[in-house]
């Protein structure tokens, strides 16, 4: 199964991405996790990305594709790509890469939750020593960025016929069950077309 996860900060991309990846036994590639790994290891990519992560801004495309390129090129079958793309230009570039690799996504999963709930979840994580970008001002900036630059991806993938919207306002367990059931329903079609899932 080849899935892109789109959703605002706190919508559950990481939580559900891990669940889907385990269910379908495919790699979970988290853009934010990979970037934070570089920051922790103080690599050149990490040093270039850190300020953007701290401010809740987008890391420039060249750095993001550098950081994720290896994981994407290593994909040999299915994948769950979480947090990538975040802009229409990233989607266009990713599309070309997926065509070159013969690994076009089958589903672009969009997790929807309202800003009040997203803020509540992220502040709760921040208050228990979660992530350094889970502070009120940085959360506001991450949400602003999401609405401005990432949200248009819903229309982009809807036009291509692969958008799967999911109501992420419910408890994580319910959301996960619904996603797995919806993706399971796609398995026969994917097999017919000879996709590796
Ligand atoms: P990234 O790590 O992707 O962060 P994000 O998009 O801000 O999203 P989060 O990880 O905070 O939330 P999530 O949707 O994964 O939800 P989660 O499951 O964690 O990116 C971080 C930064 O990296 C970006 O700001 C940017 O700087 C940079 N970056 C990344 N990708 C980039 C790209 N492509 N281009 C440029 N820059 C990029 O859940 C959050 C919390 O909510 C958890 O505590 C969880 O337990 C809880 N929760 C989850 N689901 C539910 C539920 N249904 N009910 C109640 N609580 C829930």
From TrEMBL:
Entry domain remark: Consists of three domains, a large central CORE domain and two small peripheral domains, NMPbind and LID, which undergo movements during catalysis. The LID domain closes over the site of phosphoryl transfer upon ATP binding. Assembling and dissambling the active center during each catalytic cycle provides an effective means to prevent ATP hydrolysis.
Source lineage: Bacteria, Bacillati, Actinomycetota, Actinomycetes, Micromonosporales
Annotated function: Catalyzes the reversible transfer of the terminal phosphate group between ATP and AMP. Plays an important role in cellular energy homeostasis and in adenine nucleotide metabolism.
Positions bound to AMP: 36, 57-59, 90, 131, 142
PANTHER family listed in its UniProt record: NUCLEOTIDE KINASE
Record field: catalytic activity: AMP + ATP = 2 ADP
Database matches in SUPFAM superfamilies: P-loop containing nucleoside triphosphate hydrolases (SSF52540)
One Pfam family named in its UniProt record: ADK
Major localization listed first in the record, in broad terms: cytoplasm
GO molecular function: kinase activity
The name this protein goes by in its record: Adenylate kinase
Region described as NMP: 30-59
Family per similarity comment: Belongs to the adenylate kinase family.
Keyword Cytoplasm tagged: yes
Protein encoded by which gene: adk
Pathway assigned in UniProt: Purine metabolism; AMP biosynthesis via salvage pathway; AMP from ADP: step 1/1
E.C. no: 2.7.4.3
Taxonomic superkingdom: Bacteria
Compartment annotation: Cytoplasm
Keywords: ATP-binding, Cytoplasm, Kinase, Nucleotide biosynthesis, Nucleotide-binding, Transferase
Binding site for ATP: 10-15, 125, 170
Self-association and partners: Monomer.
């Amino acid at each position: 199964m080849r899935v892109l996860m789109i959703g605002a900060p706190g919508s559950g991309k990481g939580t559900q991405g891990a669940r889907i990846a385990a269910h379908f036994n495919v790699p979970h590639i988290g853009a934010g996790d990979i970037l934070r790994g570089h920051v922790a290891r103080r690599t050149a990519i990490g040093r270039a990305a850190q300020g953007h992560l701290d401010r809740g801004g987008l890391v420039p495309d060249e750095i993001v594709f550098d950081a994720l390129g290896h994981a994407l090129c290593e994909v040999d079958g299915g994948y769950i790509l979480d947090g990538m793309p975040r802009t229409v230009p990233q989607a266009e570039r990713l599309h070309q890469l997926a065509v070159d690799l013969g690994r076009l996504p089958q589903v672009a999963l969009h997790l929807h939750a309202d800003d009040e709930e997203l803020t509540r979840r992220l502040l709760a994580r921040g208050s228990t020593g979660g992530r350094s970008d889970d502070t009120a001002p940085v959360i506001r900036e991450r949400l602003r960025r999401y609405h401005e630059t990432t949200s248009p991806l819903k229309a982009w993938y809807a036009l291509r016929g692969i958008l799967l919207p999911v109501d992420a306002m419910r408890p994580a367990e319910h959301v996960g069950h619904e996603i797995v059931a919806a993706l399971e329903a796609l398995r026969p079609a994917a097999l017919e077309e000879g996709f590796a899932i």
